[in-house]
């Protein structure tokens, strides 16, 4: 194959796969580089997954509870119920970027993966605050019918429509209330007699919720049908395996993880749980990495259990101290840009550089093609001239 065709093919492939946006981390279980644990002895402890030990501690006061990462793993969002506030920290340095006061001892937090906006609430208030993550400003307040016990965002908005946003699911006293994140209006109310608590929404059309009476239910996103799954435990904050759709539920009463097979809309629910993982200690929270290889469980007594997910077993226990409450995983924070302003600047620079790189890759093959064409024409003209000379009679060639 000519060189210009090879170059053109490579340029096309690179253009298709060029990262013109910032890499995305999953706030509830991302790339298996780091694990963040709230409620430890000194704030938020950071475990390096490769080294399997604490490598740094981020200072956080006010009894940090739910923590989440920004979509690019640059910032750590921390609820501080004792201080009635939300704090945003630089994940690399621990520097406080901004804080905002939230009523009702906020311990619950959700991130909209479509917009990056934060939603914060607590059991002591009947409202959810929408937060701009660039400056901690409260942009909207969703009023609820009772105290808030759980939050999650279903990414359902279509890129073809600007009239509706994603769905914010809020667990209140005896129902799940669904809000439109763009309009700020109530879409639906789903009655849950046992009192909904923690909410988890994997990709797909099913919402999972624990209840304060010791059950776990599923809700069909489309028909809003409530499906009982398991009962008889004391269930904590859940996470899911993106590769299989399985949902991992901490059961503090039985010192284990209950693993739920995915519930698909319109199909008969499978027997639940599909299996369990015994821990021997009360699990408080669980995080599954988005590659489905590792799980991390915050345990009562100051430990974190590391699980080999495919092998279905605990492979290590890491001491973190304190009373671990919540755990997430994510990739290493970017080296540059520790504030939202710096992140925007570096993001813009990276995008411009990426576009220039792609344009260069598209231009170079064109230049090579033109050069190749000129050389080929010259070669053809030379060959043609030689052939014409060979066809001339000897006398004419001598002239």
Brief summary:
With 399 residues, this protein is α+β, with helices and mostly antiparallel strands. It is 18% helix and 39% strand. It is elongated and about 100 Å long.
How do the helices and strands line up, and which of them pair or pack?
Blueprint: H1 3-17, E1 34-40, E2 43-48, E3 53-58, E4 67-69, E5 75-80, E6 85-90, E7 96-101, E8 106-111, E9 118-122, E10 127-132, E11 137-143, E12 150-154, E13 167-171, E14 175-180, E15 186-191, E16 196-200, E17 206-211, E18 215-220, E19 226-231, E20 239-240, E21 247-251, E22 256-260, E23 275-278, E24 283-288, E25 294-299, E26 303-308, E27 313-319, E28 326-330, H2 340-391, H3 394-398
Antiparallel strand pairs: 1-2, 1-28, 2-3, 4-5, 5-6, 6-7, 8-9, 9-10, 10-11, 12-13, 13-14, 14-15, 16-17, 17-18, 18-19, 20-21, 21-22, 22-23, 24-25, 25-26, 26-27
Helix pairs in contact: 1-2
Description:
By secondary structure, the protein is α+β, with helices and mostly antiparallel strands. The chain folds into two domains: 3-17 and 346-398; 34-138 and 221-330, YVTN repeat-like/Quinoprotein amine dehydrogenase (Methylamine Dehydrogenase, Chain H). 18% of the residues lie in helices and 39% in strands. The protein is built from three helices and 28 strands. The strands form seven sheets. It has a four-stranded antiparallel beta sheet, with no helix packed on it. Strands 4-5-6-7 form a four-stranded antiparallel beta sheet, with no helix packed on it. It has a four-stranded antiparallel beta sheet with strand order 8-9-10-11, with no helix packed on it. α1 runs antiparallel to α2 (340-391). The two termini are 43 Å apart. The model is unreliable at 6-30 (pLDDT under 50).
């Amino acid at each position: 194959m000519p060189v210009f065709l090879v170059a053109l093919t490579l340029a096309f492939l690179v253009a298709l796969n060029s990262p013109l946006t910032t890499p995305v981390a999953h706030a509830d279980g991302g790339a298996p580089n780091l694990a963040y644990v709230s409620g430890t002895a000194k704030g938020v402890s950071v475990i390096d997954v490769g080294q399997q030990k604490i490598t740094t501690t981020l200072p956080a006061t006010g009894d940090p509870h739910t923590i989440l990462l920004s979509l690019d793993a640059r910032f750590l969002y921390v609820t501080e119920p004792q201080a009635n506030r939300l704090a945003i920290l630089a994940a690399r340095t621990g520097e406080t970027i901004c804080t905002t006061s939230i009523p009702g001892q906020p311990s619950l937090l959700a991130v909209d993966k479509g917009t990056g906006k934060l939603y914060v609430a607590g059991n002591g208030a009947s409202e959810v605050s929408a937060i701009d993550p660039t400056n901690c400003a409260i942009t909207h307040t969703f009023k609820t019918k009772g105290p808030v016990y759980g939050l999650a965002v279903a990414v359902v908005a279509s890129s073809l429509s600007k009239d509706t946003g994603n769905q914010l699911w809020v667990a209140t006293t005896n129902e799940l209330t669904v809000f439109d994140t763009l309009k700020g209006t109530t879409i639906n109310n789903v009655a849950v007699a046992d009192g909904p608590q923690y909410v988890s929404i994997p990709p797909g059309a099913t919402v999972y919720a624990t209840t304060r009476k010791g059950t776990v239910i599923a809700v069909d996103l489309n028909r809003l049908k409530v499906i009982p799954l398991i009962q008889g435990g004391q269930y904590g904050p859940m996470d899911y395996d993106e590769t299989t759709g399985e949902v991992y539920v901490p059961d503090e009463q039985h010192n284990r993880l209950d693993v739920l097979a995915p519930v698909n809309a319109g199909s008969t629910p499978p027997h639940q749980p599909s299996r369990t993982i015994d821990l021997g200690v009360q699990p408080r929270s669980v995080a599954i990495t988005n590659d489905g290889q590792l799980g991390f469980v915050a345990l009562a007594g100051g430990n974190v259990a590391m699980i080999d997910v495919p092998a279905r077993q605990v492979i290590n226990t890491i001491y973190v101290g304190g009373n671990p409450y919540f755990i997430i995983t994510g990739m290493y924070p970017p080296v540059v840009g520790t504030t939202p302003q710096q992140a925007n600047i570096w993001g813009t620079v990276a995008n411009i550089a990426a576009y220039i790189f792609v344009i260069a890759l598209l231009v170079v093959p064109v230049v090579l093609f033109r050069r190749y064409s000129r050389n080929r024409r010259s070669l053809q003209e030379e060959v043609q001239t030689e052939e014409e000379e060979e066809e001339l009679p000897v006398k004419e060639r001598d002239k």
